[in-house]
Each structure stands twice: as structure tokens, then as C-alpha cells.
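Comment on the following before class.
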Amino acid sequence: MDLLLKLRGASAEEKKRGVEAAKAVIDRAGITAEEAAGGFFAMEAWDDMGFPEDEEPSEAEYAAADVWGEAHTAALEACCADWPSDKKPVAVELELLMYPEEQLADRDTGLARLRAIVEAKDGHSEASNKVFMLARRVAEDLENARDLVADVTVAYTRLEHSCFDPREPVEPKRKAVLDAIDALEKATAKLAYH
């Protein structure tokens, strides 16, 4: 499975360098990217549960989580090798590339897909994950984009749940989602989108 590196201000070539470095670490460890990420998520889940003894990750998950961390470090070093020391970030975001249509969409395509999902919404949909990923992708280079992404996803969730009560009007909810997408579009209009 492919990896996706996210870092505001990094060029496509720098991101590619970082991904290649991360993959090299994972390949040297003899595991897959899914296994490495799975180990990390097992550790996170255990932490979220309060470290119960009977839920402790296995030794293999510990080792995989270490590889995932090493992959992040290698990705950061390779991606930002040419950056001035005062501009180097402390971390990069690595993701498994599981939904390329959403995770790699350019801004205009992402906005168009968001609107198409909302317009096609008839009260019975399983698209909330796609809506979240597309909104996040559109807002990727925007500082403090969390509220805009949340506005889109929360409004879409309300639209999605409108099917539970036939007396509940759908169109005002659809308009609320489209308004949130319009706000996202406006906020990202001046970005140099990669």
C-alpha cells in the first residue's frame, strides 16, 4: 500500500522524497506499511483505553509501532533536508493511501465531489467518511482549517440523519452543507494548492 505525506509548505518533490524514505524504513523492517501503522494504532487504542493489562499490545505490535515512528522520522529528515533549520518542522503526517480519489483530489475536484455527494444525498448514504476526507484535503494547506472542515462534516451528518424522521425537512440541511462548502471554497481560494 502506498503512503501519503502531508506537510504544509513542502513541494511535491520533497513529499515524494519523504515517502520514499519512510517506505525504505518499513521495507528494511520486513513488514508492510499496514502492519507498521496497525502497531501504532494498537498503541494509541491501548492508551485511549487507559492501559488495561488485558488489552496491552503484543510484542509484534510494539515493534511495528517503533517502525512507524522511525518511518515518520526518516520522512521528515528526507522531506526537509534542504530546509533552513529555523523552518524545519518537528513532525510530518504519514497516512496509508487507502482512498486515493479523496486523499489525492485537487482543490477544484474535491469541491466538486463534495457538492456532488450533497446533491445526490437522498437520506440514505454512507458517504460521511468521504465528505470528511475531501473537506480535509481541500483545506490541507489552510492554517486553522479544523473549524471549516468540522462545519462541513457536521452539516453533512445532520443531512445524513434527516432520513430518520420523514417529517424533518431535508432541503434546509442540504443548503447548510452547501453553505459550509462555499465557506471552505472561499477560505481556500487564495492558497497555492498542490
Observations:
- The beta strands are 3-6, 93-96.
- The chain has a mean pLDDT of 90.
- The first helix runs from residue 12 to 29.
